[in-house]
Specification:
Blueprint (H helix, E strand, L loop, with lengths): L1 H18 L3 E5 L4 E5 L4 H11 L8 E3 L7 H4 L4 H8 L6 E6 L5 H4 L4 E5 L4 H10 L3 E5 L11 H10 L3 E4 L13 E4 L7
Parallel strand pairs: 1-7, 3-5, 4-8
Antiparallel strand pairs: 1-2, 2-6, 3-6, 4-5
Helix pairs in contact: 1-6
Length: about 190
C-alpha cells in the first residue's frame, strides 16, 4: 500500500507540473519520454528547445485509452478505426488526420501521431492529466534516448526546463521507441 500511495503522490506532482506548462520525464514501453500539455504552445516550445528538435518533425501524443482520440478516430471508417484500436494499448503509433491538434504538434502537416501506450504508468499519467499529452523520447534530437531511470535522471538534471521526473521503469520486453504507421501500410519508424 505504501508504494501505491507514493506513486499517487508522484503522479499528482507530475500532473501539477504538466498543468503549469512544465515538462515531465516519464517511463514508456522502451524508452523514457518527455511529456507536456499539447495545447500549451510554450510547453511544446520548451520540449522542442530541450530536444533541439525542429517544429516540422511533429510530436507524438499519447492517451489513456482510445476515447482520448475519439475526434480523430471518428473521421475514419469503422474498419480503419478498428485496425488502430486493435493495436492499443501497445507500442504502435498511428498517423491519422488531425481534428484538433495545433500545428506545433503536427509540424504543420494534416496528420497527427497518436498512441495509447502499452505502459500502464504512461496511460495513468495521461488519465490523471485529463487527456492526451505529448510524449517524445527524452534525448537530444539524433542522440540515443534514455533507456533506464539513471539515464532519464541524468537527462532531467541537465535540462532546467524539466519540471519533474516521474519515478518508473520501462518495460523489460521493449528496448526501442514505438513503431509509427500510416493506414496506407507505410511504416515510418
Amino acid at each position: 500500500m505504501e508504494n501505491a500511495a507514493a506513486f499517487e503522490w508522484h503522479l499528482r506532482l507530475a500532473v501539477r507540473a504538466l498543468r503549469a506548462g512544465g515538462l515531465v520525464v516519464h517511463a514508456t514501453e522502451g524508452v523514457w519520454g518527455l511529456a507536456c500539455d499539447p495545447f500549451c504552445r510554450d510547453a511544446v516550445a520548451s520540449v522542442l528547445a530541450v530536444k533541439q528538435r525542429r517544429l516540422e518533425k511533429g510530436l507524438i501524443v499519447i492517451g489513456a485509452d482510445a476515447a482520448d482520440f475519439a475526434p480523430e478516430l471518428s473521421l475514419l471508417s469503422e474498419a480503419a478505426a478498428a485496425e488502430i484500436t486493435a493495436t492499443w494499448p501497445g507500442s504502435v503509433t498511428w498517423l491519422v488526420a488531425s481534428e484538433r491538434f495545433p500545428q506545433w504538434i503536427t509540424g504543420g502537416r494534416p496528420k497527427v501521431a497518436v498512441r495509447v501506450p502499452g505502459h500502464e504508468q504512461a496511460r495513468r499519467l495521461s488519465r490523471a492529466f485529463g487527456g492526451p499529452i505529448v510524449s517524445t523520447s527524452a534525448n537530444l534530437a539524433g542522440r540515443p534516448a534514455a533507456k533506464n531511470r539513471f539515464q532519464a535522471a541524468a537527462f532531467a538534471s541537465r535540462e532546467s526546463a524539466v519540471s519533474y521526473l516521474l519515478p518508473g521503469e520501462t518495460l523489460p520486453t521493449r528496448s526501442q521507441p514505438s513503431q509509427i504507421r500510416d493506414l496506407d501500410g507505410q511504416v515510418h519508424r
